[in-house]
Each structure stands twice: as C-alpha cells, then as structure tokens.
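Suppose you are handed only these lines of text.
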Amino acid sequence: MTENKTLTLTINGETHAVQMTGVRTLLSVLRDDLGLVGAREGCGIGMCGACTVLVDGRAISSCLMFAQQAEGSQITTIEGLPEGDHLHPIQQAYLDHAAFQCSYCTPGFILSTVALLQEHPDANADAAREYLAGNLCRCGSYGNILQAVLASKTVKS
Ligand code: FES
Ligand code: FES
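From them, the structure of the protein bound to FE2/S2 (inorganic) cluster can be written out as follows.
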C-alpha cells in the first residue's frame, strides 16, 4: 500500500506542507499542489530548461528532481523573484530587451540567468551562451535573450 506522507518544502521563503502519495517530481508538486505554474513542463526529461527553478541557488530541472529530494533546501521559483510590485532587475532586463515571444521558456531562462550571474558575475557572451545551453527557446529569441543577460550584469541585485 502506498503511504501518505507530509512533505515540508521551503519555497520563496515560505514553508509549505504538502500531502504526498508515492514519488513525484518537484515540478509536479510546484504546479499541481502549490499553484506555482511559472515552472513549466516542456520535455519532461531534462532537455529544455522550461521547468528550471533554483535549489539553494543552483539552477536545476525540476522535472528531474523528486520533491522529496528538495526537503531542507531553499527553493526559488519565478514567482519569488519580484519584490512587491517591482520586478527583479533581471526580469526587467528581459522585458526591456523584448527577450521573449510566447514566453513559455522565459521563467526558466530568467532563473538560469540569476544563477549564472551569481556564479559568474562577469560572464561574457560566450560564457553566457554556454551556461544557458540547457535552456531552449522554440521561438528563437536567443539574440534578445543574450542582450538581456549581458545588460543584467550591470543591474542584477
Ligand atoms: S521540462 Fe524539465 S527540462 Fe524540459
Ligand atoms: S519565447 Fe517562446 S519558447 Fe522562448
């Protein structure tokens, strides 16, 4: 018989208790249990980056992580980036550079950019391209995304 368990997750600075049965991905819990739908399901197999969230500051594919593995970590989703009515500076840079079309990939790109600039504040265009290679944009907005990333170097918080 599958046991019902309570999982405790810290997301965007708040603690959430989630009733869980069986093993589920972090992406599923974020979206289906907590309504944090900024993390999107694209491929579901770790190939597109649409489901990217930060776990203890590292960009991870939430479709590949079991929710149970995230207990005890600080999880950040795109919903946790703005401060009140103010977009995070990297969100603003994406907006300023029109770095999206349909925007399906955008939360993942923005969170990967946050991780990139935390790890490599002086990343150049080549380093940014390499770091963000796991994030795919089917609309082909790569040029504008790169502009937004490079502009974010001067404005990131
Ligand atoms: S949905 Fe997770 S990497 Fe594509
Ligand atoms: S803006 Fe449409 S997938 Fe990237």
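What can we learn from it? The helical segments are 26-33, 89-96, 106-119, 125-131, 142-155. The longest strand covers residues 4-11.
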